[in-house]
Design a protein that fits this description.
about 290 residues; three-stranded antiparallel β-sheet; about 55% helix; rod-shaped; alpha+beta; 10 helices
Length: about 290
């Protein structure tokens, strides 16, 4: 009976060596005598020692960091770009059979694709339309890694390093744009104010008493301020009365009325004087 103990021990050892446990997110690609027999898992699987060999493959999404890449954009600007690629293994058998190391292969194709796409667009497109660049890189990567059983879920540009000269130029451009907008807004405000002033002038021309009300309101606002000196504006009509007042009109009227009687007096004197030419002509007519 004790002779069977070594045999039982060998059987138990082989059985323990044949059992494998795979997690829910893992798959095992099994090769038997060098030929693939399929992907197994998850759970408990049985392998034949010596003749079976299993390679584990994770189906979880992997975040791959793409290092900084020196890129010259379409408008000849030198920048450094890095990104992150999210991918997962969709077909474990292809990921093992079609490529030696799918992690290294995906990393290399990600770097070359990132340089190619960023080099074919302008800097403004990379900065302003980053989502389109991400989508384009994802599409190219998915088409290249598809035969390997890899599915690229997402690509995101993380950081764009610009030269110092380009940063200063962009800062000047942004400042000039802000100044342009400020001038436009100021001009629009002046135009609207001028329009309102013209409308107010038309109203005041029709209603002169509105000017007096505005005058009183201005005095009230100035009196409300705590100042030692108060400036009182004088209406132009008050000043104009000194130059075109009633005294000048009376003097002009008096001069006009006195000139007419003087002319009439001279005419009567000429008719009464016998030596005047008018009297001689009248005597000739009587003869």
């Amino acid at each position: 009976m004790f002779g069977f103990i070594p045999l039982i021990a060998i059987v138990v050892f082989l059985l323990m060596a044949s059992l494998r446990v795979l997690n829910e997110y893992e798959r095992g690609v099994v090769f038997r005598l060098g030929r693939i027999i399929g992907a197994k898992g998850p759970g408990l699987i049985l392998l034949f020692p010596v003749i079976d060999r299993m390679t584990k493959v994770s189906l979880r999404t992997i975040a791959l960091d793409v290092p900084h890449q020196d890129v010259i954009t379409k408008d000849n600007v030198s920048i450094k770009v890095n990104a992150v690629v999210y991918f997962r293994v969709a077909e474990p058998i292809k990921a093992i059979l079609e490529v030696e190391d799918y992690m290294y292969a995906t990393s290399q194709i990600s770097q070359t694709t990132l340089r190619s796409v960023c080099g074919g667009v302008e800097l403004d497109d990379i900065l302003g339309h980053r989502d389109k660049v991400n989508e384009r890189v994802q599409t190219i990567l998915d088409s290249h890694t598809g035969p390997w059983g890899i599915k690229v879920a997402n690509v995101e540009l993380k950081y764009i390093d610009l030269p110092q000269e380009m940063q200063r130029a962009m800062a000047k451009q942004a400042e000039a744009e802000r100044e342009r907008r400020a001038k436009i807004i100021n001009a629009e405000g002046e135009f609207q104010a001028a329009t309102r002033l013209a409308e107010a002038a038309e109203i005041i021309s029709v209603r002169p008493e509105a000017m007096q009300l505005r005058y009183l309101q201005t005095i009230r606002e100035m009196a409300a301020e705590s100042q030692a000196t108060t400036i009182l504006p004088i209406p132009l009509d008050f000043i104009r009365s000194f130059f075109h007042g009633p005294s000048h009109a009376a003097v002009g009227t008096a001069h006009g009325q006195s000139a007419v009687p003087a002319a009439q007096t001279r005419e009567v004197k000429q008719q009464d004087d016998p030596a005047s030419p008018g009297a001689v002509e009248a005597s000739r007519n009587d003869a």
